């Protein structure tokens, strides 16, 4: 072992230091031939390498000339040093030979637990360890008086049957742990208990109030029909479907019958009032028919155009033309449209096989005024310019469309442009509007793309001054 590596109060003199390890000599030996001194261990390690020369002067060495130096050793052991635990806080200092005896009392020296637990700790930490942490310490339970080692005591804590504890349900009661189970099962006001009707669990002191609302709690029928033990949640179904004493309305109540009677007597009422009910149903059907007509008219009003332009697609043109040829003066009618919001209501009609002077050779087109919602707010007669167009369906990117167009100003003296009667059915659909019997010939309509995908498009537009629209 090399020399002493302690913290000396004064640096050791050179003659006290080993030339090989540069530390204070431990077990010093002297070479008698040259007088040099070394630590016994240092010199042995040096010579074990096969060099038998003094490390200081390189003179030959002889094992027989190396002797211990007890006098020097005593001088070294009297040197003053600090405790090896000085950096940890120990303030002891004294002669080197007193260090081992100091360790027996040094508060910072690490020692094993006297209870033979595997822990090693400083002497100053030993009392707390023995009292609180040592798994081999001996303790007595303050509640039951039994003795345990530290580890067993920790396991015993929290399960001691004699320990006084509070009820886990937080009812406020305190008792020995061995009585807690019985208390929780039968005495605790905060214990949970299932409702015997719905099986849901409730705190014991609230279960009584729960029964006032429990859906499965048995109740009596308010009609006193005698049905036993009806669950509260089934009462409504019972009174609606099963209770013979419940007052019910006549099934013809929506027709106007206001009769009410117990359910058991309803069949008799229906049988006795059959004629009355039939009359009520007939009246209801009549009212509903009028309501449907009103709703249909309102839907039609919402679906019509309100910008003074009608684009009317006549699909399946060839079939309809053939039908017009077989039926004399067969007229097709467009959906109605308005000239503007709150304006005149108009309708276009056409004779695909012609009418009057154009019959058999031309397509005829006419326009007429229909009774509208806002006629009482408008100026009469109708006097705004009307333009008819047969639209060319050619691709605009390939050639400029060439629509066939006719325009006229209504004659204010003509009957059809006067204010129409307000009665809905007073307009004679057989009465022609104003237009062109020879609008476009059958030969002309076959040119270009006036007919495309067996459909034609007719357009009617009304020129309304901006001040009227505003």
UniProtKB/TrEMBL annotation:
Listed SUPFAM superfamilies: RING/U-box, TRAF domain-like
Q: Which UniProt keywords apply?
A: Apoptosis, Cell junction, Cell membrane, Coiled coil, Cytoplasm, Cytoskeleton, Developmental protein, Immunity, Innate immunity, Isopeptide bond, Membrane, Metal-binding, Nucleus, Phosphoprotein, Receptor, Repeat, Tight junction, Transferase, Ubl conjugation, Ubl conjugation pathway, Zinc, Zinc-finger
Where in the chain are the TRAF-type zinc fingers?
101-154, 156-208, 209-263
**Protein's membrane topology:** Peripheral membrane protein
What range(s) does the RING-type domain occupy?
A: 18-58
Question: Which residues belong to any copy of the TRAF-type domain?
Answer: 101-154, 156-208, 209-263
- A Pfam family (short name) is zf-TRAF
Query: Is rRNA-binding tagged as a keyword?
Result: no
Record InterPro entries: MATH/TRAF_dom, TNF_rcpt-assoc_TRAF_met, TRAF-like, TRAF1-6_MATH_dom, TRAF4_MATH, Znf_C3HC4_RING-type, Znf_RING, Znf_RING/FYVE/PHD
A single GO BP annotation from the record?
Answer: apoptotic process
Q: In which pathway does it act?
A: Protein degradation; proteasomal ubiquitin-dependent pathway
One Gene Ontology cellular component term attached to this UniProt record is: plasma membrane
Task: State the Gene Ontology terms under molecular function.
Answer: tumor necrosis factor receptor binding; ubiquitin protein ligase activity; ubiquitin protein ligase binding; zinc ion binding
Domain named MATH: residues: 307-462
Recorded catalytic reaction(s): these are:
S-ubiquitinyl-[E2 ubiquitin-conjugating enzyme]-L-cysteine + [acceptor protein]-L-lysine = [E2 ubiquitin-conjugating enzyme]-L-cysteine + N(6)-ubiquitinyl-[acceptor protein]-L-lysine
Protein's cellular compartments = Cell junction, Tight junction; Cell membrane; Cytoplasm, Cytoskeleton; Cytoplasm, Perinuclear region
Is Amino-acid biosynthesis a UniProt keyword of this protein? no
Where does the protein principally reside?
Answer: other
What is the annotated quaternary arrangement, including any partners? Homotrimer. Interacts with LTBR/TNFRSF3, NGFR/TNFRSF16, RPS6KB1 and TGFB1I1. Interacts with SMURF1. Interacts (via TRAF domain) with MAP3K4 (via kinase domain). Interacts with NCF1, TICAM1, IRAK1 and TRAF6, and is probably part of a complex containing TRAF4, NCF1, TICAM1, IRAK1 and TRAF6. Interacts (via MATH domain) with GP6 and GP1BB. Interacts with EGFR (via C-terminal region); this interaction promotes the formation of EGFR asymmetric dimers. Interacts with PKM; this interaction promotes PKM kinase activity.
The UniProt similarity line reads:
Belongs to the TNF receptor-associated factor family. B subfamily.
Name used for this protein in its record: TNF receptor-associated factor
Record the organism. Acipenser oxyrinchus oxyrinchus
């Amino acid at each position: 072992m090399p020399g002493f590596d302690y913290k000396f109060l004064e640096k050791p003199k050179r003659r006290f230091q080993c030339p090989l390890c540069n530390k204070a000599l431990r077990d010093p030996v002297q070479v008698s031939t040259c007088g040099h001194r070394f630590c016994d261990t240092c010199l042995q390690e040096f010579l074990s390498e096969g060099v038998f020369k003094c490390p200081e002067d390189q003179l030959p060495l002889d094992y027989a000339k190396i002797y211990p130096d007890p006098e020097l050793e005593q001088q070294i052991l009297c040197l003053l040093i600090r405790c090896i635990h000085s950096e940890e806080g120990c303030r002891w200092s004294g002669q080197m030979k007193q260090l081992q005896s100091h360790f027996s009392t040094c508060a910072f020296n690490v020692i094993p637990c006297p209870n033979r637990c595997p822990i090693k700790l400083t002497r100053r930490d030993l009392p707390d360890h023995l009292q609180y942490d040592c798994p081999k310490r001996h303790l007595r339970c303050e509640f039951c008086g039994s003795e345990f080692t530290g580890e067993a005591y920790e396991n015993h804590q929290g399960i001691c049957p004699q320990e006084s504890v509070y009820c886990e349900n937080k009812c406020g009661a305190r008792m020995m742990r061995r009585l807690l189970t019985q208390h929780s099962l039968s005495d605790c006001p905060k214990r949970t208990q299932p409702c015997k009707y719905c099986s849901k669990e409730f705190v014991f002191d609230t279960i009584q109030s729960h029964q006032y609302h429990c859906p499965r709690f048995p109740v009596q029928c308010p009609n006193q029909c005698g049905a036993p033990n009806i669950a509260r949640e089934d009462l409504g179904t019972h009174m609606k479907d099963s209770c013979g004493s419940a007052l019910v309305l006549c099934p013809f109540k929506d027709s106007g019958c206001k009769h009410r009677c117990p359910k058991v007597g309803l069949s008799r009422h229906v049988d006795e009032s059959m004629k009355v009910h039939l009359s009520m149903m007939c009246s209801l059907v009549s009212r509903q028919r009028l309501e449907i007509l009103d709703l249909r008219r309102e839907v039609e009003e919402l679906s019509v155009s309100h910008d003074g332009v009608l684009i009317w697609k006549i699909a399946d043109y060839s079939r309809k033309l053939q039908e017009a040829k077989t039926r004399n003066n067969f007229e097709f009618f467009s959906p109605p449209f308005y000239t503007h919001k709150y304006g005149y209501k108009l309708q276009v009609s056409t004779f695909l096989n012609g009418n009057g002077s154009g019959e058999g050779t031309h397509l005829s087109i006419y326009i007429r005024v229909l009774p509208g919602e806002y006629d009482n707010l408008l100026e009469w007669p109708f006097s705004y310019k009307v333009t008819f167009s047969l639209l060319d369906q050619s691709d605009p990117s390939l050639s400029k469309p060439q629509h066939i167009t006719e325009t006229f100003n209504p004659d204010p003296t003509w009957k059809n442009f006067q204010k129409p009667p307000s009665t809905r059915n007073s307009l004679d659909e057989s009465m022609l509007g104003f237009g062109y019997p020879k609008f476009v010939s059958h030969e002309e309509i076959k040119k270009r793309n006036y007919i495309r995908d067996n459909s034609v498009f007719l357009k009617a537009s009304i020129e309304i001054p901006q001040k009227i629209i505003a």
